[in-house]
Amino acid sequence: MKKILLTLALFTHLSFAATPEQVEQYLSVSNAEEELLSLQSQFSAMQNAFKSQETNSSDDNTYDMQMLSIRFKDYLQKHLSEDEMTEVLENYKNVVLLQFVSASSEAEEHDQNETMAYVQQLQASPEAEERIALVEKISNKLYSKEAMVVMFDELMKPLMENGIGGQKMSGDMLKATKANYLKMMTEASRYETLYASKDFTMDELEALLKVAKTPAIDHETKAVFGAMAYSLKEFFMSLASRFDVSKHQPPSSADTKHTK
What we know:
There is one protein chain. By secondary structure, the protein is mainly alpha-helical. Helices cover 73% and strands 0% of the residues. The protein contains 13 helices and no strands. It has helices spanning 2-12, 20-29, 32-53, 66-79, 82-91, 95-107, 112-123, 129-142, 145-162, 171-196, 202-212, 215-239, 253-256. Helix 2 packs parallel to helix 5 (82-91) and helix 3 runs antiparallel to helix 4. The longest helix has 26 residues, at 171-196.
């Protein structure tokens, strides 16, 4: 009887992986693939720069950038169930979310100085406090801290530990670096969300927050950040022997004590 009950319990919790067709459909409506291709271009340039500096090296550590897309899709398919992906795709039928995705893609093409200028102008206006607070709630859902932790633990931490001087890193140093990374990522996400939603009305932002609070967004965010980490990890590790930890340390307490 116990074996039968255990089998039934396992069966009821069994979920099938998302289909390749669902993954392709997701990539067509979201901007996830565009972000991956942008990263692929940036890292390809980084890799070529390293190669040009190592003219005397006989080792060929060139990483096949096409693997990024393959590994990204593979991770999404395995870590989102068919039902979860159905819920994610259902969200993308929402006009406000589609508008935000489109606006985010356009915002990425703008100069970062333009984004910061808008954010500073907004922060200087007392009338914008409610808008800023609302957008911050949206950003916290779309770019959850838990998902950012995955990026650090799966990418940055192994890179630093295996980089030049990584063996000398103390636990406190790694903890400080992680805190600095999460702060930087959280602020960058908030600024990008503020700029991307600059033409949204308050009603549209309320509608976007409602979508951002759905379980499907949580599933999507964790899966996409995890997929990014999975697809980039091998490439990051191929750079470890060239990464000098001493050049990428967080600011000291003396440098940060006056920051807000």
